[in-house]
Design goal:
5 helices, WH-like_DNA-bd_sf, alpha+beta, Arc Repressor Mutant, subunit A, WH_DNA-bd_sf, Transcriptional regulator, HTH_ArsR_DNA-bd_dom, 107 residues, elongated, 3 strands, three-stranded antiparallel sheet
Length: 107
């Protein structure tokens, strides 16, 4: 492998916590902040920081109503997630199709 990233690979979404967040948001219209916090195991401040990064990229929209906050994946976020998933499949496909190394020959 040359180290080149396949088209659609997204460094911002590749971070496991951000990938988890957008994956949790993908099937829902709006997701409660408290649900995201529990599902990811992040503190309020850590989750807010990750959501802010995703918001700045245009991938997530956060709505606050009083003390309640919800988040949703934007159409740009859905497209980025889809493209990143396609890039990961391309990477894994190459790895899974590679010939296995026979450990017994190296001994």
């Amino acid at each position: 492998m040359t180290g080149a990233r396949p088209p659609g690979f997204n460094e911002l979404l590749h971070w496991p916590v951000r990938l988890s967040i957008v994956s949790l948001l993908a099937p829902a219209a709006h997701v409660e902040f408290s649900y995201l916090r529990e599902a990811t195991g992040l503190s309020d401040s850590a989750l807010s920081k990750q959501l802010t990064s995703l918001q700045e990229a245009g991938y997530v929209e956060v709505r606050r109503t009083g003390r309640r906050a919800t988040a949703r994946l934007t159409s740009a976020g859905r497209r980025a997630l889809s493209e990143h998933a396609h890039a990961l499949r391309a990477l894994l496909g190459e790895a899974l199709n590679a010939a296995p190394v026979d450990d017994t020959l190296q001994k």
